[in-house]
Every structure is written in structure tokens, then in C-alpha cells.
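Need C-alpha cells for this chain, all 821 residues.
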Amino acid sequence: MLRLTLAQARAHAGRYLASGAAILIAVAFVVATLVLGATTSASVTNSLAGQYRSSAVVVDGLADDTQARTVAATVAGLPGVTAVSVDAAAPVKVAAAGRGRLFGTLATLAEQAELRWQRLAEGRFPAAPGEIAVGSDAGLVVGDTVAVTVRGARDDESTEASTGTATVVGSIDLSGSAQRLGGVSVYTTGPQLRAWAGAAADHELRVAGDGDPELLRQAVTAALGPDLGVRTGAEQAERVSASYLGDTDTIRNVLLAFAAVAVVVAGLVIANTFAVLLAARTRELALLRCVGATARQIRRGARIEALLVGAAASIAGVLVGIGLASAVTLAAEAVDAPVPLDTLAVTPTAVLAGLAVGMVVTYLAAVAPARAATRVSPLAALAPAEAVVEPAAASRARRVAGLTGLVGGVCVLWFGASAEQVLLACAGGIVTALGVVLLGRSIVPPLVAAVGRVPARLIGPLGEVAVGNALRNPRRTTATATALLVGVTVTATMVVGTATVGAAAPRELNEQFPVDVTIDADGGLPPGLDAGVRGIDTVTATAPLLGTEVVAEEGTRLTVLGVDRVDGAATLRIPLVLPADGEISLSPEQADAVGVVPGGRLDVEHAGTRRSLTVVAGREGQPALVGPADALALAAVPQSLWIRLLDGLSDGELAAAQNEIADVAEEFAPMAEVSGAVSMRAAIDSILDVLLLVVVGLLSVAVLIALIGVGNTMALSVIERRRESGLLRALGVTRSGLRSVLICEAVLVAVVASVLGVLLGSILGAAGTASVFGWDGLTFGAIPWLQLMLIVLVGGIAGVLAAVLPARTAARAVPVAALAG
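Here are the C-alpha cells for all 821 residues:
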């Protein structure tokens, strides 16, 4: 039987092209999803924390330069350490003639080449006092002379920031790096930074070494003790990335969820295609049984064919999937994405998963059709397929399984979305989709009959024939609809998900960064600063904050801020709980720390003044807030200024507004620190742009899968109805009439599948967004209804395109030859 199977495979290789194409594209879909997921994660980490790529171990938590150098000497003497760099950084202001003031970060350059991650775009690296290199996007050129002010540094006899003059000797290429999102990047030598920054600098150690980074981390930890933070370079890179993104696991979970959906989509398409393929060969298999082949041999032969087709198509699919992922990364580079996909990560998991999907799913897909083909007697199987009219109702087991999957999946989906668990919601969505597919034979034919009344009246008898053909063989109709249903469902899911995420993301950003810009000064804000900031055109509201430290019950120290309720509410992007006089608003963590509950009383004291305040429950993560009168009674001083900017400003306008605010702050309070969400928002927006590009690439593959699936089932149904088509031609139906019947049938099925797919995809997309941002973050007004209607239209067009070639094949057949079978 093996030799017969192999001989048939060689002689009739053409009949595997349709199923092989479906397997190839489905596997490519899975591989491209996994590769792009790994690529996005690696590229984002490299972009946001590329300086750690060459580091085996990173040590942070260092108090000052003296401790950093002592620790560096200790680490340098450890076995396996090849280089140690003491990295220092401090906030900086750079002023150049004709270019205004630029704010950003001053950092040191590693002396060792293996730990120096910066790449020169022009000039040279600084090597002497008074020399700096700047980021390529700073707007400065080699030879410029600038004033450098390290913010927070103090001279021995002055409270002014430490200032010096420097010459730009080099330009650092920061393309593809998120370093450029945090303002101007300035680099200099270690001695020069120490002279400018003094104690204002933050320090960390980057260590290069031979061997396993984890073993080296353990050795460094043993040498330094538990007081310092010791991590591998990869761990530190992920930690720094998380400081930009909040939680990089969310990105990975979304991509993993999409990969899981891709696996299910691939399995359904392959299973349906192979099922129809074997069903079309029922007479051939029955003839083999008549000449002596047993049912077991027939089933074994079908499984061998499935493995051969699955293996060949899966290997090709893996290569195509890697190529698709590479094409998306090149597209990201071509459009100059803010965080380019520059690290193509082809993991063993992606390759093995693609091979497993193609081979295992194809094998499983062949089991049920092969068993069905051998259940009837050989003589009964030799009868024309058209002689058997299938019942419209599905089996009881299929209905029970479908209803169980639908109800159970919806429950899991709802629970996952309510609990904000992405992977759980993904599992519920997959089970829900499977339930709909299992119930397809109970759903699709009745809908086709209802929708088919329109063409039956418009086209006449041929329209009635098309509707009758669709209803007479519900298995074939459902298989054709399912092929398109899964593709449309994935497309609608991602379209709705992308739109609702786009509407929910700003609210999530507002939760993380409720204030646009903040001005802080430990020595207190001077008079006139608030009025000066209010005079800026892009500023819509400001709220001064009075700060002090109080002693609560049992000696717990607590920093409180006094803010006016009206002014504070005008500056916030989200509604924090702002207290009235006589109240104190505490986050849940602060309330637990001082041992009070909302509604209780909290006694606080400062410099002999005691106040008894009513505790109100604040939002998680917010500072302790009191009213202005209570703050003044506790000797609070103006410490911070909350600032809100105009809505709808572009990234460039936001950066310009923050620089203008910094100029005003410099004029009134040179030591004040200006911070805000501008750079963070820009970083997160850039990541969302890249993910959207990834989604577009994956959706293009989903559309190809849908077209292949519909084309396969339509082509095989034409083969299965060869005698029926011949009979219609013999009764006088023209070639164009026969084509119209088949195309009309395809359009009916495609429209029904598209409508079901859009409804299911809308539910899954909305639930997916809720699983990330919560139901409160879901905006139903953001659902793109026009795009969903276009998807239904495109689904109908896809049905026409998929039916054109099979319809032409059926119309070209000679009636006598077709009737002969």
C-alpha cells in the first residue's frame, strides 16, 4: 500500500496543489506571526536599551562616583571579567548661539571599545576636557561651541547649577534608538562629567566577560553582596524597556495571543481543505477496496499522503513565513518607523511550531475524512456523489460540542476580559470561534436560504438553482463558508481591536502620566513662575502644589501635597481624588502603611502643628493630597507646579511646548527640574506604530489564507459536481449561465460567511481590548463600522474571485464527457 500511495502521489501531484497551497500559506502565517513577535520584542528592547547588548553584567544602586570606582576595581579582578566601564549620567541643558536651549542627558563614553555602544556619524569621540559629542538629531554640528549646564549640580559656595563651555567634536548616530526620544543626548569623558556634575550624577557599572553571563552575575553578586543591584545585560535591557513601556509583557502577550489564533485559523483551513479533497476521491478509494484493499489500508494510505503533503508544504511555508517577516521589517525600515524592526529573530520555536502545525494538523485532518470514506460499502461509494442528498441537520454530537464550546468560550472570554487576562481571554475567544465553526452546519445553510431569496427573485431560475445547490449539500456549503469565515473573523478581530486599542491607549497613557508637564524645586518655587507659565500659548491650566513632610500615627513619615481642587482638576488628564479642606486623600498603599481606612481620622503633625484629617480613598499610585488651607497650616511651601497643555498637539509641538516651559522655569528658578510625559508618550506611540505595521502584514496573510480556502473548496466542489454540471448543460443551460450559477452560489456563501465573521470578529476584538484595558477602557464608539461593512463587501468580492476559475473549468467541460463522470 505504501508503494501504491507513493506512486499515486507522483502520478497525481497536481491534485495536492490546492491543499498544499493552503498548508503553505497557513504555516507561513504562523511562522510570520511568531518571527514578527520575537522580532518586535528584540527590536524594541534593543532600541530602548541598546547600550546593554554588549554587557554581560550590569551593577546599579551605586551611591556616588567613589563607590562606583571602588566597586569597579573589585569587579575587574574577578575571573572571567574582560572589561569594566563606570557609566555616569546627569540631566543637562545645552545652550548654543542661535539654537536656543536644549534639554536632555549628559552621559559618559566607555573607555573600552567592547563596551562602547555609540556609533559615530561624524567627527570623533571626545578625548580631552571641554569636548563633547551629541546625538545626530540634536541640531548641532561639529565645531559648535555650547554652554553646558548640569541640572542639580552645585558648587561648594553657590546654589547655582554647574556650568561650563564645550566644543562639539562628534555626532553620534542614534537612528533606531529610543535615546533620541528623551531630549538631546550629550556624551563626554568620565573626568569631564565628574567635573561638571559632581554628586548630581547617577552611576552604574557595565561588565564584559567570557562565558555564561548568569555565572558571571552570580560571581559578581557574591563579591559585592546583596546591597547592590546585579543583573545580566539582558535582564537590565528588559528592565529599562519596561520603564518606557510600563509592561513589555503586554506586547508579548498580545502577539502570543495572535499567534495562538493563527494556529487555530491554520488548522481549520487545512482540515476543511483536506476533508473536501478526500471526499472528492470517495469513488477512487471505493474502487481500491473493490480490487482488494482493506479499509485499514485505505486509511493508512490517506494518512501517508497527508504526512507527505504536510511535510513538503510545511517546509516551504516556514521559508515563506520567514520571508514575509523579513519583508515587514524591510517595510518598517523603508517608512522610517520610530523604532525600526532591525533585529530579525528567527527562533527555533517559530520553525518547529510551523512544521508541527503543517504536519500534525494535516495528519489529523486526514483521519476523519479517510474514516468516513471507508464507512460505506465499496459498491455504495462508487455511486455518483450527486445521488446522495445530505441532511441539513448536523449530528447530535456536533451540535452538543458546538453549543458547549460556544457557551463555555463566551464565559471564559467574558471572565478573561473582566479580569484583564489577555491569554485567558484569547483561550476563550478560540473556544468560542471553534463552537461557531462546529455549529456551522446548523447556522450557515439557513442563513444562505434566507439571503438567497433576493437573487432567486432577481436572477430567476438560475438563482433558484444556485440556492438549491448550496442547500442540497450543507457539508460542502459549510466547508466553503468556514474557509472564509476564519479569515474574515481574524481580519475583523484585528480591525476592531486596533481601533478600540487606539481609542483606549490615550486613556491608559493618561492613567500612567496624568499631568503633561511638572516643575519641581526642592528649595521652593519663586513668585511669578506660575504666571509666567500661564502666559505660554500652549498651556491651558496650571496648579501650584504646596509640599511638606508630616509625621503620622506611630511615627510614620508621609510627604503630602496641598492642591486647590479646581486648579488641580483642570490640569489632570484623569480624575484623581482631590480632597477638600479637612480631608486627606491617600492611595490604598499609603492607607495601609499608616494603618487607616477611608472614612477614618488621621492625625498628622509638622513643627508642632497638629491636624486631624478625614481619610478619603484615592487612586492607586497617587500622592498624598490635602487642601491648601491644611497645607499652609502645616507650613508647606510651593514645591511643584502641575501644567496641562492643549489637546491635539503633535509630538514636535509637545516637545517645543516643554522646552518653552523649561525656558520660563530657567528664568525664574534655575535649579528647578522640568519633567513630563512628552518623551514617554512619544516612545509608546512609536511602539504602537510598529505594532500596527506588524498587524497590517499579518492581516495580508490572513486574506490570502481566506482566498486559498474558498478557492480550494470551490474548485473541489466543481470536481464533485461534474455530472451535475454536465446535466445542466445538457438541459440547455449555457456556459455563461453555468458560470453565473456557480458564482452566485459562491457570493451567497461568501456574504453569509463575511457577516458571521464580522460579527464574531467584532466581539472578539472588543473583548481583546477589554482584556488589556478593562471594560471601562473600551469605547464602543471607536468601532470602525464603515471598515466592517467594507470587509463584508470585500468578502463577497473574494467569493467571486475564488469562484471564477472553478466556474470557467466547469463551463468548459463537454456535457457528454461530464455526464460520464
